[in-house]
Amino acid sequence: MLKDLVNTTFVAVEESVRRQRPRIDTLEIGTVQQVSSATAEVSGMAITADELIRFPKGLMGIAADVEVDRLGAILLGPVAHLCTGDDVRRTHRVVSTGVGDVFLGRVVDALGRPLDGKGPVKPSQFWPIERPAPAIIDRAPVAVPLQTGIKAVDIAIPIGRGQRQLIIGDRQTGKTAIAVDTIVNQSPELVSIYCAIGQQADSVARVIGRLKKAKALERTIVIVASGNDVPGLQFIAPYVATSMAEWFMERGSDVLVVYDDLTRHARVYRELSLLLRRPPGREAYPGDIFYIHARLLERATHLRPSKGGGSLTALPIIETQAQNISAYIPTNLISITDGQIYLSPTLFHKGQLPAIDIGRSVSRVGGRAQLPALRAVAGPLKLVHSQFEELEMFARFGTRLDEDTRRKLERGQHVREVLKQPEMSPLSVAEQVAILLAVTNGLFDHLPLGDIARAETVIRKGARSDLERIGSRIVEGAPLDDLRSQLLQVTEAVLAANGLGPPESS
Question: How many domains would you assign to the chain?
């Protein structure tokens, strides 16, 4: 019986071996030759550029410099355990990121790993972080405004959906505040992505707190590559954010992406390039520093209806030194984008917040996407403001002023006061039109500058129902001529009822 059992087992094993088909796996393995704080040099591998490679203990890297006898890799994690002589393996894939609705309301790092303690994120799709920009034939004109809720921006420097508008200024002048207020002001159907590059953890925490307070985090993705992260993660963060945004755009949604900020991104890329022994150029930046930002921002666009009709609006932020907007990186970004919002430290220290210098700011696209009523009220306001700035300069010399010049100066002061706006207090389109129409038509001329803020509050609260009704017509594209008399009548009545009307009517 034992003999029969042995024979049966032997036959079964022999049959199993006969059915077994040996499989040969090929592995392409290289060797680490040199390690720095953010890069590694590898030999013994034939590989394509931008391919993802695997180091020991799960560390990943990007093949950045591919030469005949060496490979320079950008590391995407801590390098404390990496040593020369370690094996490196090919993955035959490029760097990818998870995309989808599962990221809404989450705070993740540059690799899509959660940082908010709400559990893992399980995306159903992965897209490469480097994707070609939409073809020209697939793009549509920028025709829909992106309302920021900030009077100075929506009136003087309008932004359209699909536009690339640069926010530029010295350190601590309110650049991030403008970007966050823009996110807060968006409607629930518009998706926002805030990408923090090289920021301090407390700064990012404040932004997240403001988004939570305004109940805007549920429709926002926050991607964080802090200054404590390795340079490789900081470098890929904006590309990850753009791929996540493109997933929504290609499904017909409108997306807003804030890159905060690309100055730090450029410095990180300079560090990586020097470690990879690339030849330095101006200010030690590599020769392709323009290209890395151009290929990123060129992906922002408005798709034509046959491609879904979605849009990706980019708000890159750049920090200047001593108001020098002609420096290397700022001029690069100015030439890539469709305009810039310039924040002046001089205005900031004077208390003119937001510190937007209208004279040095420009929007090359948004005017065509501006609502007709806003465009009509913007013309006289910008004229009054520019005349005021010129006259104010001459008035400092103590020259005698005629009555007409004095009136222009007083009205210009009221216009400048009206353009002030606290953080986290966006205004609707109708509120902006009503307030700015009032100041340009002299309804505030008799008020002391200290009462301007109170008058704005009175108009917003006292005429809320009327403004909501008129606002729907403004959004539908009604011209200002059809609404001017109605808006002025409502505004005058509300001001008079609250004791802010002109002396003869109060």
Answer: 3
